Please model this.
Amino acid sequence: MTNSWERRYSRRAKANTGSAIRALLKLTEQPEFISLAGGLPAPESFPIAEIAAAADTVLHEHGAAVLQYSATEGYRPLRELVAQRVSTTTHQLTAENVLITSGSQQALDLLGKVFIDSGDKVIVESPTYLAALQAWNAYEAHYLAAPMDEAGLDPAQLAPLFAQDPKFLYCVPNFQNPTGVTMTLERRQQLVALGAAHQLPLIEDDPYGSLRFEEDALPSLLALADPDDLGVIQLSTISKTLAPGLRVGWIIGPPELISRVALAKQGTDLHTGSLDQAIVHHLIATGFVEHHLPSIVARYRERRDVMLAALNEHFPASTSWTHPTGGMFVWVTLPAEVDATELLSAAIEQGVAFVPGGPFHPDGSGRNTMRLNFSNASPERIATGIARLGNALREF
Ligand code: PMP
Model:
């Protein structure tokens, strides 16, 4: 059979060459190796005992219901809770605005399934979340790259992209993956106004918003949108505040879109695991998630500080990096002539890994950039890892 598989694969499957990050994660298996490559939360932050207790409670109280097939849109009490948490005096959302997904990664895939025909254009930040590109490559999307700087995506540069009739615009306004950058309030307002003027849906992906180390939260694009004509689809997840292994995320949007996405989800997995959804509902409803969050934030803030200090100490003056005020990533720009993929081989010899920034760019640029994760490794290992990387860079 070996030879005949290839000709049977779909065009989509053949185009999917896999994520550079997943291949790199294999390296982290050796204990002496320091990986700043993945996007993993700190395992010390997983509330294992509380999750076990919540599982016990929901199984005892609603055992049959959480073990049975259930609605594609999700566990209704959780949908109601999510709606209630994002509602404000101006924006009254209900369960009909919410669909629970198997992580927000599935939300990205389902939105691709619902919106993208082969060759359709979509606007993404450059750089953007790699696995969003991976999800939409399967639908044969054509990307229009929206330039970013330290203030986030720049709406002033969007006119030529809006003119090409894209299906939607995708962005990560808070502590973006990969850059750690946060879009300013002014740009959020401009973007929402532009989206409304062009009737272009904005997909606001917000997995990191609650991992905020400094200053007050900025209003979400959803909160800035016209409540009577919601042009913003917001995604979020429990992966960074509880545990990614639970695979619970959600889409918030107008009920008409939610019904469409539910039809798409039916063919994918019928519904997200009910036991996981009920556990997440229990831990949010009892206030545990809110109570637990400050300890995660304190841990990541310390690790961010250690990383920035180590970069200052060990990286040459010809490099620059972002100063994220939350989230899990720092983004480094190397001198133009340095290819980060080549640097990675030198870094691996020194026992440290990062993710080269090129693949995050839909337009093939950014070869001299890299993403560093500060949430997963201990402060000591972050400091050692950056020192090793500084050595690799100097030798390179
Ligand atoms: N969007 C962004 C921007 C992310 O960084 C991630 C996690 N790496 C996801 C979506 C997916 O998260 P999950 O499926 O675990 O909810």
